Amino acid sequence: EGLKDITKLNLNTNSLRELPEDLFHDTTNITWLDLKNNHLTLPKNIFRYTPKLDVLELGSNNLSYLEPGIFKNLTKLRLLNLWGNRLRNLSRALFTDVPNLENLDINSNGLTSLPPDIFADLTKLKIINLSTNNFTSLPQGLFLSNPNLESVLINNNRIDLPSLPAGFLANMTQLQKISILNCNLLILTEDFIAGSTSLINLTLEKNLLVTLPKDFFKDNTKLENINLSRNKITSLPDGLFQTTTQLKILNLARNALTTLTEKIFSSLNNLEVLDLSRNSIKNINSYTFLKTNKLKTINLSNNKIKDLQVNYPGLDPPQSILKDCSENLEALYLSHNNISQIYQDWIILMSRLQILDLSYNNLPNLSYASLASVTARKLTMDLSYNKIDRIDFDIAEDLARYKFGVNDTINEFDIGVRVVLKGNPLVCDCRSYDLVNYFRDQFAPQVKSVVRFDGTELNCAGDNEMKGTLVVTLDPKLLTCEEKQCPHNCTCYYRPHDDALIVDCFERGFESLPLYMPSNVNRTKHYDHIELDISHNKLEVIPSKLGPNYDMVTKIDLSNNNIRKLSLGSFSKNLTDLNLDNNNMTIMDTAAINMLKNFTRLENLTLTNNPWNCDCEAKSFINFLSKILKQVTNYNNLTCKTGEPLITKVNNVCPTASDYIGIVSIVLGVSGLLIGLIATAYYRYQREIKVWLYAHRMCLWFVTEEELDKDKQYDAFVSYSSQDENFVVDKLVPGLENGPTKYKLCLHYRDWIVGDFIPNQIARSVEESRRTIVVLSPNFLESVWGRMEFRAAHSQALSEGRARVIVILYGDIGPTENLDPELKAYLSMNTYVKWGDPWFWDKLRYALPHPTELSKGIPLISHPKRNSHNEKLINVTNSIINTSLTTPPADSKIVDNIIIDTKQT
């Protein structure tokens, strides 16, 4: 019983196939039933218990047949959807029992025809959709009994439907919308919609219509939207739209129109959107748009339009045929035509214009002045892919300041027009100089506020080296234009950055200078100075008198010639750069030097790679150079012909007798003073001097080691691991303290103070000992204190510049790569012997401090090559050590950092 209150039931997309006849027995109050997207077979009496049903959705169910009377009890049904099924035949009997039906959708079935009276009982029908079927024809009078019909859709018929009956949709006074799209209609009769006075929207898109009868719309005075796009229309008769005065949107795109006559749109004074794109329009009458002054959007893109100039007499400057649409026009699309002019009405009169698309046309050039008068706010003008090769910025700043005022505040809302320039063949020479400076913000800020050029994807065209370069990245100093007026066999360029004329005579075989320099008279581009490059030629002499206009040359490159003599009398005193590099100049005489002195603005003088004489004859020249060092380029590279650096001091070139006397006197005086100072210092700091001399291995005959170490308490401090103490106590100590030469040793267990801080004791032991003996063993490498003792001794030796450390190799320590980095570095730079070596005690005693009476008979010690540590053995000759010999200084070349290797063999 609870189902009786249900009014809406949704069973869509449930893969239902069969429904029992009494399925809705208990749902008699249902008004809305959705059964779409199933696979149903409907029993004849399925709806007998749903008399209140208002909406029935049966779409997409693969229904191929509906039995007449299936809707018998649905007298209140207003919407019936049968779309997306496989219905082939329908009869009047199917709809007899739904007299109140208003909306019927039978699109996307397999219908090929309909009986003329199939809808005769649907007197209240308002909307019908017959799209996407297989109709070959439709009967006349199909909707004769449907006076309330408002919308008819016959779109995308699957096969050609070349025609429809005369008056097929005529005299339907409630009809507002017709859509017959993509049915390949070839023709429509004049009375097709006659008498259908309420029609508002008509779509006949994507058919094969070539024209329409003149009186086709005579009764359709309320039409607001007509879509005739994608047909084959070649022409439309004047007066076709005479009665459609309320029309707002007219779409004629993608047809074959070639001409727009004077009266074709003469009645459309309420038209707002007109699309004529993708036709073949060449000719438009000057009065075509005279009455369409409410147009907001016009699309004439992709046509063959060359000229839009109105032929009204006395119009200056020229205006376009769209001038009468200026008041309300917001978007004008003219891309892909052959237009070569921007008309003044687009700039001055169209104050509401926001889009002006002129891309892909033939606009040849552009001036800032032509755009500065734009009255529209936020206008985007697309000029991409035209023929614009330059942009003229004459009086740009004056125009911008006039429009905004000098002190007006500028913000983004003040931008009058944004101009898109990408894809234009801009030639990057002097003609683009102002545009490059514009992108580099070299103009007053008001200039960009009036016209903002968009340089995105704007690349240089042409054949020069700048081709393909993004314009906004160009350096304006590099922009030049070739000039025709030029000396024979040279090339001339104008450079606007500094108003210079560049005369390029590089490597042209000249044996003398050109007869003249170009004149500045009768030229469109006036230059301030000339830069002459005549390098890599065969010039030998620069004459004293030159031809006309050489006085305008401020830079001249004479490098890589054979010039021997220089005369610059005919050049301007404003000369700033003179390059004489790589010539045959040996001397610059007084006359040439005086000429150079007159060039008060000279900034760069290049004289390198010449065979200059550096004798007394060069006195004036070298003296002159010494006074203008800042102007001489690469002065330090100037050399004499002998290859020596050119001397700047004239006295070094040509000294006098008085110079010699002065030099000798100065040397003697300074020498005496130094001797006195040295004697005084030695007397006062005798000991310190000896220490310094010994540390730096200087005058070792003057210094003895005993003098430096006479205050030290011990001969050696023994550094070892506690685990090697037996070796030290039983072998090493007795051999040194009780041998032929008795040494005083510092030992941990005997000489250290119990309880004192260990690092302090290490430092003190190293400081008070003449040597440090390191017993290097595997145990030592594991000892933290042992490594600390080695570092202390090594650091002291480095600071004194003396050999203080003696290394005894005791046992196998393995590969040196695994050693402490500091110890590894030390072993790689020094030598050592092993325990068990027959010369062990001799080598050890030799490395220790010797008594002063030892003087000779020292066995020779040679350092082996620095390979593996097993090879680093001291090779001692068979000479017997004479204990009466004197020990040399510890850092002498003979005993440089001896390391004694005591590895057991």
Automatic annotation (TrEMBL):
Keywords: Glycoprotein, Leucine-rich repeat, Membrane, Receptor, Repeat, Signal, Transmembrane, Transmembrane helix
UniProt key word Iron: no
Topology class, membrane: Single-pass type I membrane protein
Compartments it resides in: Membrane
SMART domains: LRR_BAC (SM00364), LRR_TYP (SM00369), LRRCT (SM00082), TIR (SM00255)
Keyword Signal (UniProt): yes
Family matches, as Pfam families: LRR_8, TIR
GO biological process assignments: signal transduction
GO molecular function annotations of the record: signaling receptor activity
Residue intervals passing through the bilayer: 660-683
GO CC list: plasma membrane
InterPro entries xref list: Cys-rich_flank_reg_C, Leu-rich_rpt, Leu-rich_rpt_typical-subtyp, LRR_dom_sf, TIR_dom, Toll_tir_struct_dom_sf
PANTHER family given in the database record: PROTEIN TOLL-RELATED, TOLL-LIKE RECEPTOR
Entry protein name: TIR domain-containing protein
Organism: Rhodnius neglectus
